[in-house]
Amino acid sequence: QGFYPQPSYNNEVTGTKLKKIYDVVSNKGLYILFHAGYTNLFSKNKTYRKKDYALLKNFINEDGKSEIFENYNFPVVLAHLGNYAKIFKDSEIVKLIMRKYGSIMFDTSGADIAIIRWFLENFGSRRLIFGSDSYYHNMKSSLGLCLECITRAVSKEKIEESIPNIFCRNFESLLHNYK
Question: In this structure, what DSSP letter does residue 140 have?
């Protein structure tokens, strides 16, 4: 991702292109999955893939407002629970997004077991989608990790509710326009 998600954080050309993309996504009833959070993976050309483009703080401003979440009508999935691997610096931003924006979901790809459990224990499973990040992680181990988190989380939800939400129902809700 060679841009900041909020159009105004970019130069004019990139910002205009993003607005057009977001308008098309809104009008077509699509959703967008953004890479989100810290990463240790960089391209050789560091000027193109900056390490801070996808930080959660770039999806909202200091007041918790977001051009994307407030001005466009499409669901958003933020990959890696907004954090990657064992790096979990943005729990307060996750809490703010969950409280303020009902159409935002997170996926489990590349997230550490403690982060997934923390999310389930604080917010339940209704806005969490299974993600494997299979280019970097084995699908089988990603499934096992997610199931382990579900069974060990101390949550008000029953396991029988969490599993279908994370692995099916929540994703189906993103596809509501394709029935």
Answer: H
Please give the sequence-ordered ranges of beta strands (E in DSSP) within the chain, or none if there are none: 32-34, 76-78, 104-107, 128-129
What are the CA-CA distances from residue 120 to residues 38, 123, 136, 151 (Å)?
A: 20, 5, 23, 10
Report the Cα 69 to chain-centroid distance in Å: 12
Burial class (CB in 10 A: 0-12, 13-18, 19+), 149: buried
Q: Which helix (H) or strand (E) covers residue 146, if one does? A: helix 139-152
Give the dihedral sign, CA 77/24/55/132: positive
pLDDT digits (tens, 9 = 90+) for 72-124: 989 999 998 877 656 677 889 999 999 999 989 999 988 888 889 999 999 99
Distance from C-alpha of 142 to C-alpha of 131, rounded to nearest angstrom:
8
Task: Name the amino acid, one letter, at 86.
Answer: K
Q: What amino acid is encoded at 69 in this protein?
A: F
Global confidence as pTM:
0.88
